[in-house]
Amino acid sequence: MSTEADQIQIIAYCCQHCAYAAADLAGGLRMQYSPSVKIVELPCSGRMDVIALLEALEQGADGILVAG
Q: Residues 5, 11, 14, 16: what is their CA dihedral angle, to the nearest 10 degrees?
């Protein structure tokens, strides 16, 4: 049975030195997060392009997180 929460797609753009390292550590500790969250590694969150954010929304993302 699929619920609405299962169909939500969140794209998390994470800085490779900070937020992505934290997500990687959480994975190493076998912590779980929702499968609706897709993590995208960036060289630096300060270089995130607004056009890329808008394209993610156009392609069906329900929410976006930019973490540094």
A: 110
Q: Is residue 51 part of a domain?
A: no
10 is a domain residue: yes
The Cα 6–Cα 32 span in angstroms is 15
Domain that holds residue 35: 4-43+56-67
Kindly report, residue by residue over 7-66, the tens digit of the pLDDT: 899 999 999 888 888 888 887 888 888 889 999 999 988 888 899 999 999 999 999 999
pTM exceeding 0.70:
yes
Distance CA 47, CA 43 (A): 8
Question: Residue 49 domain-assigned?
Answer: no
